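A.,

Following up on our hallway conversation. Structure tokens first:
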């Protein structure tokens, strides 16, 4: 036999009641014997509560609510039953309504609502429901027997939340079911005391009824039919990726419900737990869903952490003082006084130094708590042995729940590192010795971020998101998203990673969407729907959105954007950038960014600052880490200038090649930055700093390839006018080099901390002689690579190789955050 219990929404509409019938019919057709427990129609119990309260205040508006109940029930009956079959059930319900009206009228006259009359008033909800469901089943060929649970469940007289007298109750139930072999439709929630007066079972009472019946009849399963897909890994309103669990143990279910998952009430499980009867949570409105099975078995293949739950509002109370160390009885006095004041303590921790006890309570109890404790320890506070209470507000609790955590090492490590990498500060932690629950107290604004980050960390099979913010939507920005788009499906399927664009800006517009901007149409969406762009607003918005696994990409060549990195890193958001300006300004800012990276546990990656995607920065990093030291750096660091000399054969003027380089996407947004040597100077400065030299921009000795006149102009167009005047001179230089069998190279060199950039000629056999396209060459001489340097060579500019490098940095961050 199975007990099937239907909640308020499952009997709340004609559509729902029809589903109930299908469910019963399906089970019976499979040969199952069932008994049904019903709750009151959704909304009815609240209205009954209201009626009682109003009547007790002699407020006549109670009759309006009475009429609403009548209308709701009559509406349900007419929707449900054929006209010619309605009269009997309408008569039954009207009779109940009359009885209800009599009691309420009594309350009105007496101006008093006793717990006993309150229970009696509430009992009508389940009685209406049981009558209507039985009548509907009867007209649809299911011969059902309406059972008033007051005949079965016997309690004491604690009205409102009566205690069950189990022995007598069980006898009653077994006897009743022996004598009533038909399908029994039992009213949930209600019971009676030894005088036959109506009592109720408290919150979650109908589940309790089901569990009591199940235990007495020793059924094989109890099904709780509700309107959600069972027990989920987290609250789906807070964690989009939450999903339904197939199985969960009783202990886990109790712990989860304790922390706010409202599918079931822990107390109600007890009779089922005692007899090891499995419970299954099913969805009336999604019958395909197999349900969450709650039992004492946890399957081998199951998750270690079953759920991530939270308590949204708590305050943390810190009770401390030098006078408590080694003094017994302090904790007992503290918690004793709180218990007497009925203050519920949600979490407690005490460090082994015994210098302080920290505990969490509900914010509504904070002030009372202060009063009680300061009163209890008045003497100790006066003499300075105990400090005044320190209460911290606006906090939340995050908890990971799972029985298997006990046997699995590293769970708390992952919990703490996940929160740490997402910049979430932990105020207090508590782990029950059962190791069923690890709880941490964090600041409330971080709650959603923390829930999502932990969910991603513990449910690995689930797709997790990398939330990308990007300023700069030009050549590199667009190419990057073309590349991400091409790999998107692969990442989702193979790496369970969803790279989302959650904020984007160019110099005109900016657009945000925490669920992700469409990656096919993001640029058009930005231009069509974006608001006016503002770098400072953008940075603040990123901070306010406070998303887990966030990365900021700067694809501009802009100084103001570069100046924001420190603030961004301090907001615990990682930064990826091809923009060189932050690392090539004052040394102090470069250092500050490195410090901010370390301090905040985030990443600051800029491989594409030098030689686009070529691994020149990574290489210095790994040489240093392994104990090597870079002594000398030499190379060609400008893709643009490299292209100019590689392509310059005299057939086209030099200035025309500069335009070609621009069109090929090799130059800076302003090509003068390449030709005046500044771009190379910045790169050399960055390589010098990475190798350990504290150089400033003015320490770079820069020999320009072109005369000053080219740069004393106001626009790129004027620059080209001046540049053309220099075409002949460039040709002459080239021909002279040709005569000597040599090639022109604009080289950058760092030697013994001295940095210089100049135009030279090199002959065959020189490492910089053989080059083509936008090639860069970087050679490192180090204590280990002393005889022959390590050389890195390849395309050092261009949209694909640069965007690819940015993408690579982004993925490094993603695996770091995992
Ligand atoms: N092209 C390459 O081969 C290469 C190689 C390595 C590094 N880089 C670097 O990549 C970066 C981007 O280069 P690009 O070729 O894509 O440039 P681009 O001119 O095509 O794009 C720049 C983008 O930045 C935006 N922008 C500029 N100032 C802004 C501001 N204040 N606020 C918001 N948006 C702003 C522009 O609107 C544009 O969308 C530069 O820093 C460049 O040095 C480029
Ligand atoms: N404009 C740069 C792009 C790479 O930073 C170059 O030509 O090398
Ligand atoms: Na690089």
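Then the amino acids I'd put at each of the 818 positions:
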């Amino acid at each position: 036999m199975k007990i099937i219990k239907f909640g308020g929404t499952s009997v709340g509409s004609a559509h729902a009641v029809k589903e109930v019938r299908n469910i019963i019919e399906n089970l019976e057709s499979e040969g199952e014997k069932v008994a049904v427990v019903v709750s009151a129609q959704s909304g009815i119990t609240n209205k009954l509560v209201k009626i009682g309260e109003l009547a007790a205040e002699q407020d006549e508006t109670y009759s309006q609510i009475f009429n609403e109940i009548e209308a709701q029930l009559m509406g349900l009956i007419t929707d449900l039953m054929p006209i010619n079959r309605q009269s009997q059930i309408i008569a039954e319900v009207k009779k109940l309504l009359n009885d209800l009206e009599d009691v309420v009228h009594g309350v009105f006259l007496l101006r008093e609502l006793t717990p006993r009359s309150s229970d009696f008033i509430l009992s009508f909800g389940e009685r209406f429901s049981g009558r209507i469901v039985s009548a509907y089943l009867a007209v649809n060929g299911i011969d059902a027997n309406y059972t008033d649970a007051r005949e079965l469940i016997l309690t004491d007289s604690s009205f409102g939340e009566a205690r069950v007298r189990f022995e007598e109750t069980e006898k009653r139930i077994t006897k009743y079911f022996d004598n009533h072999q038909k399908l029994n439709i039992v009213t949930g929630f209600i019971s009676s005391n030894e005088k036959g007066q109506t009592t109720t079972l408290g919150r979650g009472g109908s589940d309790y009824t089901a569990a009591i019946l199940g235990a007495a009849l020793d059924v094989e399963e109890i099904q709780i039919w509700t309107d959600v897909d069972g027990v989920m890994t987290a609250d789906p309103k807070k964690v989009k990726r939450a999903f339904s669990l197939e199985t969960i143990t009783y202990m886990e279910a109790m712990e989860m419900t304790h922390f706010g998952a409202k599918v079931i009430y822990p107390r109600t499980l007890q009779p089922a737990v005692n007899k090891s009867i499995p419970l299954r949570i099913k969805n009336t409105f999604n019958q395909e869903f197999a349900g969450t099975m709650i039992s004492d078995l946890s399957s081998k293949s199951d998750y270690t952490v079953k759920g991530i739950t939270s308590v949204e509002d708590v305050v943390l109370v810190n009770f401390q003082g030098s006078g408590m160390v080694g003094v017994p009885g302090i904790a007992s006095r503290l918690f004793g006084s709180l218990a007497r004041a009925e203050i519920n303590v949600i979490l407690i921790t005490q460090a082994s130094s015994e210098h302080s006890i920290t505990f969490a309570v509900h914010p509504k109890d904070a002030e009372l708590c202060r009063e009680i404790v300061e009163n209890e320890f008045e003497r100790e506070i006066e003499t300075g042995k105990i400090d005044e209470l320190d209460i911290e507000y606006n906090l939340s609790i995050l908890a990971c729940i799972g029985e298997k955590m006990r046997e699995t090492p590293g769970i708390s490590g992952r919990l703490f590192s996940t929160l740490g990498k997402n910049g979430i500060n932990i105020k207090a932690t508590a782990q029950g010795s059962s190791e069923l629950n690890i709880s941490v107290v964090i600041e409330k604004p971080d709650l959603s971020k923390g829930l999502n980050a932990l969910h991603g960390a513990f449910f690995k099979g689930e797709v997790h998101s990398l939330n990308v913010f990007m300023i700069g939507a030009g050549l590199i920005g667009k190419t990057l998203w073309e590349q991400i788009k091409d790999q998107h499906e692969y990442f989702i399927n193979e790496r369970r990673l969803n790279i989302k664009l959650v904020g984007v800006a160019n110099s005109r517009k900016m657009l945000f969407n925490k669920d992700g901007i469409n990656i096919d149409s993001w640029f058009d969406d930005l231009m069509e729907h974006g608001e006016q762009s503002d770098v400072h607003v953008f940075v603040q918005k990123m901070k306010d959105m406070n998303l887990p696994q966030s990365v900021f990409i700067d694809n501009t060549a802009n100084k103001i954007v570069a100046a924001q990195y420190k603030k961004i890193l301090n907001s615990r958001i990682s930064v990826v950038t091809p923009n060189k300006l932050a690392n090539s300004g004052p040394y102090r800012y470069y250092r500050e960014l490195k410090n901010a990276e370390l301090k905040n546990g985030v990443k600051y990656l800029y491989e594409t600052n030098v030689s686009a995607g070529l691994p020149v920065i990574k290489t210095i990093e790994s040489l240093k880490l392994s104990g090597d030291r870079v002594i000398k750096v030499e190379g060609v660091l400008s893709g643009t200038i490299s292209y100019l000399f590689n392509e310059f054969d005299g057939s086209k003027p030099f200035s025309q090649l500069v335009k070609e380089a621009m069109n090929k996407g090799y130059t800076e947004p302003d090509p003068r930055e390449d030709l005046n040597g500044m771009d190379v100077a910045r790169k050399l400065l960055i390589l010098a700093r990475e190798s350990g030299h504290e150089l400033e921009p003015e320490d770079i000795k820069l020999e320009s390839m072109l005369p000053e006149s080219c740069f004393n102009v106001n626009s790129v167009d004027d620059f080209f006018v001046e540049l053309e005047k220099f075409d002949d001179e460039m040709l002459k230089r080239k021909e002279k080099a040709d005569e000597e069998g040599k090639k022109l190279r604009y080289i950058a060199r760092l030697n013994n901390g001295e940095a210089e950039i100049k135009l030279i000629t090199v002959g065959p056999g020189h490492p910089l002689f053989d080059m083509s396209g936008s090639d860069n060459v970087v050679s490192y001489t180090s204590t280990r690579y002393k005889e022959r340097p390590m050389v890195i060579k390849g395309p050092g500019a261009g949209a694909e190789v640069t965007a690819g490098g940015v993408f690579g940095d982004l993925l490094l961050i993603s695996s770091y955050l995992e």
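The CA atoms of residues 301 and 530 lie 47 Å apart. Curious whether your intuition agrees with the design.

B.
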